[in-house]
Specification:
This protein has 8 helices and 11 strands.
């Protein structure tokens, strides 16, 4: 609050919704389910930054989030808030589930390959690293300065909750609905405040070289102001505080794999910036309203 003078905080009450057009819901995972039946009835648009309405299959919530979904009947009302790939669904919706940071970074990195049928969709491997801010503000033993500084570690081995979200996105983008999708996802905690880098390994269905794949990416994202296709390796600092994703791709003839890399700011394109981008679409505003596409570098 000290950074933004004049803001008043108030405990939640349904009466606060009177005359409100748009609500950003930034509650902990699981908490927004209690409020959502009221929110979707009383306001025109809802943008939820939690994970409560990202997965369209209610049966996945007990496995990945440890509890059953309390209002599964609302899941079909939510568009998945990744504008570059699901813009028309967002524009037609009244409620949006903002994607997780890892799914945002990973999906944007591999989407041109998936949509164009250039890779097999099973056995995809994703190694990604996030800044410590991705763990939230409450203090935790593994996010103290003395623990994080000069350290780099993997976590959520084999069971990170963003795994089914990534798989859901791939299935939605796949040319064939019958495609089998499986992702081995390993997140890492990096000793930096913010930023995210995802390195994805996929098996090609054809024989395109790196130059041809980069051309596919450039064409796919040609009209997207918040995605930059780079010939060099994406950098987290180049995306700092911006709503932009940087992506690149390589074909490795030696191993027979494709490597796709994406970088974002986990707090902006991976959270608040993407929420604003979705809200702009809902309200019919220019998509870049209030957002920066240029990173704060250095």
């Amino acid at each position: 609050a000290a950074a933004y003078g004049g803001i008043e905080f108030a405990g939640y009450d349904d009466s606060l919704l009177d005359g409100v057009d748009l609500v950003f819901c930034g509650l902990p995972h699981g908490a927004s389910q209690a409020l959502m039946p009221t929110l979707v009835k009383k306001v025109q648009w809802v943008v939820d930054l939690a994970a409560d309405f990202r997965l369209q299959d209610a049966s996945l919530y007990p496995q990945w989030y440890g509890e059953s979904h309390r209002c599964p009947e609302l899941l079909p009302q939510f568009a998945y808030g990744l504008p570059e790939l699901f813009r028309s669904q967002i524009a037609a919706a009244s409620a949006v589930a903002v994607p997780g940071c890892y799914p945002t970074c990973t999906t944007l990195a591999i989407a041109p390959l998936v949509v164009n049928g250039l890779v097999h969709l099973d056995g995809i491997v994703v190694n990604a690293a996030s800044g410590v801010s991705g763990a939230g503000r409450p203090p935790k033993p593994n996010t103290t300065f003395c623990t994080v500084d000069e350290d780099f570690t993997a976590y959520g081995l084999l069971n990170h909750r963003h795994t089914p979200e990534i798989e859901q996105n791939i299935a939605a983008l796949a040319p064939s609905a019958s495609s089998s999708v499986s992702v081995l996802f390993t997140p890492h905690l990096a000793p930096m405040n913010r930023g995210m880098l995802a390195t994805c390994y996929l098996r090609p269905t054809g024989s395109k070289n790196t130059a041809q794949l980069l051309e596919v990416y450039e064409e796919f994202y040609a009209d997207e102001q918040f995605v930059v296709v780079t010939e060099g390796s994406p950098s987290t600092k180049a995306c700092l505080s911006s709503n932009t994703a940087h992506v690149t791709v390589r074909a490795d003839e030696r191993t027979g794999h494709i490597v796709a890399i994406g970088a974002i700011d986990n707090l902006t394109k991976g959270a608040s910036g993407q929420a604003i981008q979705c809200a702009n679409i809902l309200a019919g505003l220019p998509e870049a309203t209030g957002l920066s596409s240029i990173g704060v570098y250095p």
